TrEMBL record, chain A:
UniProt key word Cell cycle: no
Organism: Clathrus columnatus
A GO molecular function held by the record: zinc ion binding
Catalytic activity field: [E2 ubiquitin-conjugating enzyme]-S-ubiquitinyl-L-cysteine + [acceptor protein]-L-lysine = [E2 ubiquitin-conjugating enzyme]-L-cysteine + [acceptor protein]-N(6)-ubiquitinyl-L-lysine
InterPro entries named in the record: ARIH1-like_UBL, E3_UB_ligase_RBR, IBR_dom, TRIAD_supradom, Znf-RING_euk, Znf_RING, Znf_RING/FYVE/PHD
GO biological process: protein ubiquitination
Stretches with biased composition (Acidic residues): 1-10
Class of the enzyme per the UniProt entry, highest EC level: transferase
Composition-biased stretches (Low complexity): 117-128
Protein's recorded name: RBR-type E3 ubiquitin transferase
E.C. numbers: 2.3.2.31
UniProtKB/TrEMBL annotation, chain B:
Domain of life from the UniProt record: Eukaryota
Family under the similarity heading: Belongs to the ubiquitin-conjugating enzyme family.
Active-site annotation: C88
Keywords, sorted A to Z: ATP-binding, Nucleotide-binding, Transferase, Ubl conjugation pathway
Coiled-coil zones: none
Full protein name: Ubiquitin-conjugating enzyme E2 1
One Pfam short name: UQ_con
């Protein structure tokens, strides 16, 4: 964190009490049953940019390189090995350093980053040569048991020579030229020296098998630490080994997967939610369980300069800006809307309100209220009133939502309009842009109104002054 | 020739040439990618003497993707589904290596029968039985081996099992791994035998677990 305390305070102030308006909100809400509603009103763009940093794909790569270099210099390892270790530890540098200090050999063996000689660490791979049928063997954990059994029983092939991962590279290196048949595809290449391949652990198979294998692992399984094909050999292929085996475009995707995993395992990093945007955002102040009740971390990815702007909530991962509602309430609203949407639209389409008892009545029959017991309790009528209110807000919310959808079509048409305007009148293209601006403003207003409706519903649930309520109500009726 | 076909042919041939492992691989239909593997139950286990058939499907991207295997013969084992024969074994999933062969995988299955892993079960009811009462589990596994896998009768146990593969009527109580007395106790209350067996098996009414389950609880379940 490079910000001084002072700056930090300023920022928080800006976030909660952006202007006069906010203070008045807070006064209204004093003494509420929960402190959920603390208004985090819209700040200007600079506020967002101070909270978040947009990282391009290259920036990410650079950052990953820096991390690996760090580990590399501290542990005095090669770059590739340090990279494998970091990926194995899911980019948790502290844990990696700690574990490595404890027992470097173990870490190197388990992560598959070790030189082949390090694989000697595996004491388990020293095979007990008992046949699998002896009962004494059952004591062993079955996870390693079957494999042990395989090793002891596969004496047929020349494989036994190589099946032990603990053979040092030199020995395998000497024997490998004589292995001209690939064990996997059972093919005998005409030119073993160029068509056979082995990574640094020395397990030799034909190159086309290696290619198929690595492509499957990277492209289909999205595995970033690709282990050797030999059973129980943990050695992970180095990046340059993969580069030799993979097609160029798949290798490029491999780089992307590494970045994905880096972002996934760093809580302060998130990819921009907008499709086809490859930028990531890093938050400078991590929100926690308590602070999320007062802060709305709205992030704007600076990758997009033209609308729609890439704005999303860093915490609840919804697109757009749901301020002044906090995440918990915004999600609640969305869930309600999604859940109730079906039944509400059915009620609207198929029922009418009974003029006597105000219940929704299906149009195909009469109201049965006469037959019902008359003592509808207070609770029921209150619930009904609440539902009505909710429906009022829901209605308006959905209207805005629909308008936004319609206006999205408008955005597409506006481009044509501008072109035709430029062609038919004397207006220059830049002058004709006012149309575009108009639509942008309209969209923004719609978004704001949409959130405003949600917020109003929330406020309505609270015990606020009647006058205040009425005013807002009138306002809502008039704008919608 | 297709690399996959070449490899499968070689594996089948290898298996034929190997007389020591007692493992056979045969074609089920015309496709060389749908096979049947057979191996004997390992000695010193309840499965001893039985012959186990395994359905093998070789996927498109074999050997880079693991083969799909499931038991055709019914097996009473924590890591094998007693209903479908599905197998829970690491090398059939993420621990697969292209170097492994059909034969080595079948050998692994054989040794899976020696060493069950009840903490990572495929069949939770069987696993519970295994952890609650080992002797009762082994008796049931043995009974299954005798009636489904054709293992020779051992001649001990509460009742003589039927001879041969499914010739005479089967004892549903022994198949479920329950005590005859327990089943009869609830049968006298007027419940159907199959229902009683089903409930008692689900509740794992065996060995040390019996005192933990009240009769009321069982009756409640039976009435559902």
């Amino acid at each position: 964190m490079s910000l001084s305390d002072e700056e930090y305070d300023n920022e928080n102030q800006g976030l909660f009490f952006g202007d006069e308006e906010d203070d008045s909100y807070n006064k209204d809400l004093e003494g509420e049953e929960d402190n959920l509603i603390v208004v985090a009103d819209k700040e200007d763009e600079s506020e967002t940019s101070r909270m978040f940093k947009t990282l391009s794909s290259d920036d990410l790569e650079e950052e990953i390189r820096r991390e690996v270099n760090d580990v590399m210099s501290v542990l005095e390892l090669e770059y590739d090995v340090a990279s494998i270790l970091l990926r194995h530890f899911r980019w948790n540098k502290e844990r990696l350093l700690e574990d490595y200090m404890d027992s470097p050999d173990k870490v190197l063996y388990e992560s598959g980053g070790g030189r082949p000689s390090n694989n000697n660490f595996s004491s388990q791979s020293s095979v007990s040569e008992e046949p699998p049928t002896k009962k004494t063997r059952t004591v062993k954990a079955s996870r390693s048991g079957p494999l042990t059994a395989i090793r002891s029983s596969l004496r047929l092939n020349a494989k036994t020579k190589k099946s032990k991962a603990s053979i040092p590279q030199e020995i395998v290196g000497n024997t490998s030229p004589s292995t001209t048949t690939c064990e996997i595809c059972c093919d005998t290449p005409s030119d073993p020296s160029s068509m056979m391949y082995h990574p640094r652990c020395g397990h030799t198979f034909c190159k086309s098998c290696w290619r198929d294998y690595t492509r499957g692992k990277v492209e289909d399984d999205r595995i970033i630490n690709v282990a050797c094909m030999q059973e129980s050999c943990k050695t992970v292929l180095l990046e340059n080994e993969l580069k030799e085996l993979l097609d160029e475009n798949i290798f490029a995707r491999y780089g992307q997967f590494i970045q994905d995993s880096y972002v996934l395992h760093d809580k302060s990093l998130k990819f921009c939610l907008y499709p086809a945007c490859s930028h990531a955002l890093r938050t400078k102040h991590q929100v926690n369980q308590t602070s999320i009740l007062t802060v709305v971390p709205i992030a704007t990815c600076t990758a997009s300069t033209t609308p729609p702007s890439h704005t999303f909530c860093f915490n609840c991962e919804t697109r757009g800006d749901h301020r002044p509602l906090i995440c918990a309430l915004a999600t609640k609203w969305t869930n309600h809307v999604n859940e109730d949407a079906g039944s509400v639209s059915w009620i609207i389409a198929n029922t009418k309100v009974c003029p006597k008892c105000q219940k929704p009545v299906e149009k195909n029959g009469g109201c049965r209220s006469d037959l019902e017991i008359k003592d509808a309790s207070d609770k029921v009528s209150r619930s009904r009133a609440d539902l009505e209110k909710w429906l009022f807000y829901y209605d308006r919310y959905m209207n805005h939502e629909k308008s936004i959808k319609l206006e999205n079509q408008l955005v597409e048409r506006i481009e044509e309009q501008i072109t035709s305007l430029v062609n038919t009148s004397q207006m220059s293209w830049i002058e004709a842009r006012f149309l575009q601006h108009a639509v942008d403003v309209l969209m923004k207003c719609r978004e704001t109104l949409k959130v405003y409706v949600k917020k109003q519903h929330r406020l309505m649930l609270k015990d606020v002054g009647e006058g205040f309520k009425e005013g807002r109500w009138k306002f809502l009726v008039s704008v919608s | 020739m297709d690399a996959r076909l070449r490899r499968v042919n070689k594996e089948i041939a290898d298996c034929k040439n190997d007389k020591t492992s007692n493992i056979t691989i045969t074609l089920i239909d015309d496709s060389p990618f749908h096979l049947k593997g057979t191996f004997p139950g390992p000695e010193g286990t309840p499965y001893e003497g039985g012959i186990y058939d395994v359905d093998i499907v070789i996927p498109e991207s074999y050997p880079f993707q693991p083969v799909k295997m499931k038991f055709i013969t019914k097996v009473y084992h924590p890591n094998v589904s007693s209903a479908s024969g599905a197998i829970c074994l690491d090398i059939l999933k993420d621990a697969w290596s292209p170097v492994l062969t059909l034969k080595s995988t079948l050998i692994s299955l054989q040794s899976l029968l020696c060493s069950p892993e009840p903490n990572d079960p495929q069949d939770a009811e069987v696993a519970k039985h295994y952890t609650t009462s080992r002797s009762s589990f082994e008796e049931t596994a043995r009974y299954w081996a005798e009636i489904y896998a054709g293992a020779p009768p051992r001649g001990k146990g509460t009742k003589p099992p039927s001879v041969g593969k499914g010739t005479k009527e089967r004892d549903e109580i022994a198949i479920a791994g329950l005590e005859r007395a327990h089943v009869e106790q609830f049968e006298t209350l007027g419940f159907e035998r199959t229902k009683v067996i089903d409930v008692l098996r689900r509740l794992n009414y065996r060995g040390s677990n019996v005192p933990n389950i009240s009769d009321d609880r069982i009756v409640e379940e039976l009435l559902k």
